[in-house]
Design goal:
It is a single chain. Helices cover 28% and strands 26% of the residues. It contains five helices and eight strands, in the order αβββαβαββββαα. An eight-stranded mixed β-sheet has the order 3-2-1-4-5-8-7-6, with helices on both faces. The protein is globular and about 45 Å long.
């Protein structure tokens, strides 16, 4: 597909995004998703890990990994078209589904308001939150150094809130949190904070990151 067709599809998906809390109020199982690559460039192996954790104990109740050859290059703003196929491959093997997914990527904090978390959420009709390690779009005010400090992430032009800048651990680089689908702006922050323990990354994404790293190391590049 051309980037024009990708853009048209993103605009359609954007029209389907719901920013209301349509997930269970008493969360028990939280999913994490991460993707990694064997090399930089167009022809690389894409690896995905999806995990389901019990939020009461942080024990892993299910996990799955997958990998495939990836011919789609990285194009800013179109990451989901590169990563969705391998994520779906991994998800298909799960036997326990979470109440909500945390995705290593953007939700609506995206040029067309439909990053990886929103794309997956609408595609699968599941609640998702985007937790990005770097800022794709938006501006924000000064952020405090203490854990839990947060400021709104605002659209560059309209100044509409599109997410949060969150200090998940004292004096570390912030995370960029935004609702993906079926989650409100306020709840996206609350859920991510509830999943942050001693580390920069929330537990579900940290677990997925560790699993995808192990998987990548076992498969020859």
């Amino acid at each position: 597909m051309s980037t024009k067709k990708w853009r048209d599809l993103q605009n359609y998906l954007r029209s389907r995004v719901v920013l209301e809390d349509l997930f269970v109020s008493s969360l028990r199982y939280v999913g994490g998703i991460d993707v990694s690559y064997s090399q930089v460039g167009k022809n690389a192996k894409a690896f995905s890990a999806v995990v389901v954790l019990d939020i009461l104990t942080w024990s892993m109740v299910d996990l799955s990994v997958a990998w495939m050859e990836s011919s789609v290059p990285y194009i800013p703003g179109f990451l989901s078209f590169r990563e969705v196929p391998v994520i779906l491959e991994a998800m298909d093997k799960l036997t326990v589904l979470p109440d909500i997914w945390l995705v290593d990527g953007a939700g609506i904090a995206h040029p067309r308001r439909v990053g990886l978390a929103s794309h997956l959420g609408v595609l699968l009709d599941v609640p998702t939150i985007g937790v990005a390690k770097s800022r794709l779009v938006g501006t924000h005010g000064e952020l405090g150094e203490e854990k839990g400090s947060r400021v709104p992430l605002l659209d560059d032009d309209t100044q509409e809130q599109i997410g949060w800048v969150l200090r998940s651990r004292k004096a570390v680089k912030p995370l960029y949190v935004s609702p993906g689908h079926k989650v409100s702006m306020e709840s996206s922050l609350k859920v991510v904070l509830a999943c942050c323990t001693r580390y920069r990354l929330p537990e579900p994404i940290r677990a997925a990151h560790n699993m995808v790293t192990q998987c990548k190391n076992k498969i020859p590049s």
